[in-house]
Amino acid sequence: MTKYGDIQTRREFLHSIGNIGGSAAVYQAMISMGLLMPGDATGAELRDKWAAKSSQISGDIKPTVAVLGAGIAGLCAGYELKKAGFPVFIVEARQRPGGRNHTLRSGAIVHEVDSQQSCTFDDEEELYFNAGPARISQHHTNLLKYCRELKVPLQALVNDNRGAYIHDSAAFGGIPVRAREVITAVRGNITELLAKAINANALDGDIGIDERSFVLDVLRDYGNLNHNFEFIGSKRGGILSGTGGLMPSQSSEPLKLDDFFFDTSVPFRINFGESYNQAATMMQPVGGMDRIAYAFANELKQELYYGVEVTAMRRAGSRVRLEGRTNASEGAIEVDYAIVAMPPSVIKNIPNDFSLLTRNAIAAAEYAKPIKIAFQSPRFWETEEEIYGGISWTDAEILQIWYPSGGFGQEKGIIIGSYLFDGFHAENFANLSIEARKEFTLAAGEKVHSQYRENLSRGISVAWNKVPYSLGGWVKSAPSSILQKPDGPFLFAGDHLTYLHGWQEGAVISGFNALNNLLDIMGV
Prior knowledge:
Distance between the termini: 33 Å
Radius of gyration: 27 Å
């Protein structure tokens, strides 16, 4: 035993295992020592385990694997299986890769169960609309690793912009205000209240006499209070028009807390960019999110089959019998294993031989119903309102307005006129006709931008609960432990199997989980 005791001994032991057997051996040793539960593995650990153990299998005994669905989870699994030398093929009902990773450009078609739309944007590099996932967190290391490996260039995405607007018809007299004004007012007023409490000795049990001065200094700086610990306004919230150039800048009149704090959702919206997966720096692929899907597909040209709809998933002894159809024919094929990388909202409608537990887990998955609508427009938000990227918040009927993070200074851009995550307003929006969606967005958006109607055109929307082969955005419940495990020769993948619902990182992690389940079945 070393002088550092058991912890150092375990470290040295694991290090020696790593030198001999690699990361997969370390992973298994940590489980055996009680330092890590099998279900606690991170995406990187799952990836490393797969890389180490799949390379140990000789080529002549690798089973055939069908991957059902060419979303990010299916593409990840198929790509890794091909690299490891497995006989693999991927079937996708659509005529494109990516699943919900769908970027709309000039000429693209949007299919919903009761309508069809054509994208009429001008054919220019920056005129695209990420109808599905639109941002990547700096913490999504597994997805970012693929972007590097597949040479997908990235750029910063402005997710949180203090120059964007916060609007609520019940606040500020219905006038949109800059996010910086709201943030400054909230911080200033709350820190003033806290400073008053400290100076009134109300927190003596929590803050010692020797700590009081330091805490007050922090509060003064955080809320930009004056020397009397009062918030009387701050240049952080903006400066008066005409000042700050040839004459000294003067802070604008601060917002009154009572005008918005107690009876609106405004205070919660300013914290959106503070969450772990939403905080800067956020990223996006240059030219559109589907650059990732097509980069995978480019590596799977011989293994990827479009336009194939799976019509049944059956057991054939210990193997899998898949039935499917294309526009031209129907057929069936047998494989050793199938990775089902489709959302439960779709799987539940396909005849199958899954266990009762699996079928119940699939049926229990409830999906959110997000909807987005985008328009082409001159960049008036830049030229007239000094907004460069980010999100404005407005009433719940359209909720968010997104500004493009690329092409600054160009003549035209694509503005997302509304992004609704789920709930009554999203369902109401989705049930409108295509033209009514546009009119609804313009009427609501004019409350934020009076120039909306005269500038926005060529609108196109995607209601994900109406999109065939998706039928929803993301699951709203915790991942099913049943679906995280194999069901005989059937394995499952998709972001719904992780706590990263709706994120491509979750899809990638689920792909590696399915691959490691395959190794476990094979006894590797």
